[in-house]
Amino acid sequence: MADHMHKRPNRMRARFSKTAFPPHVSRRGHRALSFALTAGLAACVGGAALAAPPAPVADDAPVHQDSIVAVINGTVLTRRDVDNRGRLFALSSGLNVSDEVMARLRPQIVRQLIDERLRQQEMLSRHINVPPEQIAASIADIEHRNGMPQNALRDRLAQDGISLTTLIDQIRVQLGWTQVLREEMGSRGRTTAAEIAQREEALRHEDGKPQYMISEIFVPVDDPRHTENELKFTETVIQELRNGAPFPIVAAQFSQNQSALDGGMMGWVQEDSLDPQVVAVVRQMPIGAISNPIRVAGGFVIATLEGRRTVGHQMGTVLSLRQAFLPFTTQLNPQNPTEQQRATLQQATQLSSSAHSCDDLEAANRKYGEKRPSNPGELVLERINPQMQQVLAGLSAGKASRPLVSTEGIEVLMVCGRQQKNFAQQTPSEIADQLLNERVEQTSRQLNRDLHRRAVIEMRSKA
């Protein structure tokens, strides 16, 4: 078993969401064809705002920064482009990535940038344009999700020597590629009632069989006779993951599957939806482990197991909540709270004892400026962090929680209702999303292969 996986540090799980309540957006399916910024990229850059500055990536003398690494159908890729993307990865992962590690990552960064150039060219050939306003909205969304003031992300990138264009280009390609796939799929982008019914019938026959919640990073291999470089890169990525790099961030940066748009998340899958080599590993994996390189058709897979269940059987508790957030005017220093922060704590304590209904809590949240939504959406008790589980598990409906203090302010929560639900029973909407995701992945891989087959790519120098 030790040959196939390694336990991931639990401390990194909290990095993906800044608050106790993760963003409530569908992980799969239609989101892959939407025009919103992907969660993987949001986490990628959002994590950077909270992380310690990474070690700088070693540069050659400035004269070499504009040296040409590759020419892709006449479009130039320079050393500067490669180094900027490397810095973005180092910053977003929050790790002090050594020069040696970055040197091992560079070949795959070059490959990724070549793929992006090909995708950009395909976007241009189809006259697909991503408006600057859409990119600006995506960057603003990253800042908003992570409690950053306007333009803070631009300033942070500049501080670490990263061109804003590096991030803009990555966002533009991700947004534009979803439009390319939408066009390419055409009518296949819609699932019919008959297809959903067929999948429901198949699931009934699968009742009692295992399902896995898996995230993946797929590293393609161009020439199956020579896999040394790709294997070396895969092993480097695995080491960084085991050192604490967040899986969604690394997947968003380096995975060549369409699941990279969701930080590598595949969702709940049955064994017959996975490569046999992957099945053999995940059957043995403990939750949270990082696999060794798994050789599959077309490349290597790095897998992490987030959960396992039996088809048709997974009970959980769904909570309907309300919250009131009382903001601080400055960030809290626990050893030296300000007068405003002391007063806010008194107000939160009073609210905790005086609020007797969810309407009371909503009214209080409006009073304090609705800095966070009154209704965070339905939450699954078993899927939130252990500290918050302790708060909510014993909280009776209609009873306010004690004040929950953070550096930004104080929250008071209330359970409005709870119910037991079998999460292994997929709804027609969830099945439609899964079917669409499978088609998106197949279309993306096929189109990528076609673009490479038609391309004229001239490698000029090492990155």
UniProtKB/TrEMBL annotation:
Keywords from the UniProt entry: Chaperone, Isomerase, Periplasm, Rotamase, Signal
Q: Report if keyword ATP-binding is assigned.
A: no
UniProt keyword Chaperone, yes or no? yes
Q: Which Pfam families match?
A: Rotamase (PF00639), SurA_N (PF09312)
GO MF terms here are: peptidyl-prolyl cis-trans isomerase activity
**InterPro entries under this entry?**
OMP_Chaperone_SurA (IPR050280), PPIase_dom_sf (IPR046357), PPIase_PpiC (IPR000297), SurA_N (IPR015391), Trigger_fact/SurA_dom_sf (IPR027304)
Q: Which residues form the PpiC domain?
A: 209-307
What is the name of the protein in this document?
Parvulin-like PPIase
Species source reads Gluconacetobacter johannae
